[in-house]
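Running low. Invent one:
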Amino acid sequence: MRNADVIYADTFQSYHIPPEKQEERMNALLPFQVNSEMMALASKGAIFMHCLPAERGVEVSAEVIDGPQSVVFDQAENRLHAQKALMSYLLKSQ
């Protein structure tokens, strides 16, 4: 993460992970949580992105996802417009 311009995270848990494996996965991934200490390693103007939904306190700390470097809600809005454009394009081509 040192000198990175963008920090991108994803959820630690997915629907396909069996319940008996979730704790093991959480223990393995928790040291990689994006938090203030990790963001401090990035470049001064670094931004934080996440594909959402995010679980505060798990893959990302609340102070990062809700902080000034976070662009997760702008990112989600842009994804919405991109998906709408794709749907419009596909419907027009029929």
About this structure: DSSP finds four helices and two strands in the chain. The beta strands are 6-9, 47-50.
